[in-house]
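Just curious: can you write a single protein's sequence together with how it folds?
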Amino acid sequence: MRKQFISARDKFYNIVKSALQKDGWRITHDLLLIRIENITDMYIDLGVKRIIAAEKEGQIITIEVKSFIGTSTISEFHTAVGQFINFR
């Protein structure tokens, strides 16, 4: 049985998405699914693509939006680092 984890949108999600689009990035995924060996699914907030030049055509990045505005900044930092390690 596959577990799913879908996080809530961060407070700054729409601001980051809009800024990326204004800078020429095309949103390719609005929740990018990462499947881990039939064990679990994780989602990164945005998958984006930007065509910079012929030699870099098709460059793709993924973005996880974090605001660190909760009651414990260090706890949120550790959560973000853990997510980064999982995604990597």
Residues 4 and 41 are 5 Å apart (CA to CA). The chain has a mean pLDDT of 75. Strands lie at 3-4, 26-36, 40-50, 59-63. The chain is about 30% helix and 35% strand.
